[in-house]
Every structure is written in structure tokens, then in C-alpha cells.
Amino acid sequence: MTDQPCLDELPPSAKLVYKVLEYDGPLTQKRIVEESMLSARTVRYALDRLDDCQQIEEQVYFQDARQSLYQLRSPAERTEESSAEAELA
Questions:
Q1: pTM of whole model > 0.70?
Q2: What is the average per-residue pLDDT within 12-34?
Q3: Which InterPro entries does the record cross-reference, listed alphabetically (predicted)?
């Protein structure tokens, strides 16, 4: 499965969050809200959709452990994970 069809099926808000992370990432959810000018709820939804498509990874934000840091996965990471899932099926 290629990444592009999954991205094509995402809502516009998820595509915008993807582009924000592409240009400015890694970012916290709060910074994504500020950069994209979307509501916090919409950003959470977009991040969930991007995670479903294995486009992002979530890490601990060491400056404030209550928050997470989001960044795009490298194409190699997305390929490895989809290959591992295919082997399990």
C-alpha cells in the first residue's frame, strides 16, 4: 500500500496538519493549533486520522511531559510498519 492514496482520502484539516508538520515539525498539539489556526478539537481529529494512516509518530515532549510531540514518519518507517503488518496478516 502506498502512502499517497491514504493521504488523498483524508479530510482537509488532516492534510493541513500534515503540511504544518512537514514545514514546521516536530510540534506539540498546542503549536499545531497556533500554526494551522484550526480548533484544538479539529487538530486532535486530524492527528487521529494521520495516525490511522501511519503518517505521524507521537513522542514524549520532555519540556512538559503532559504534552506530546508530533512529527511525520519517514517514508522508510511507514514502509517498514506496513510490511510488518502485512506479515502478521
A1: yes
A2: 95
A3: WH-like_DNA-bd_sf, WH_DNA-bd_sf
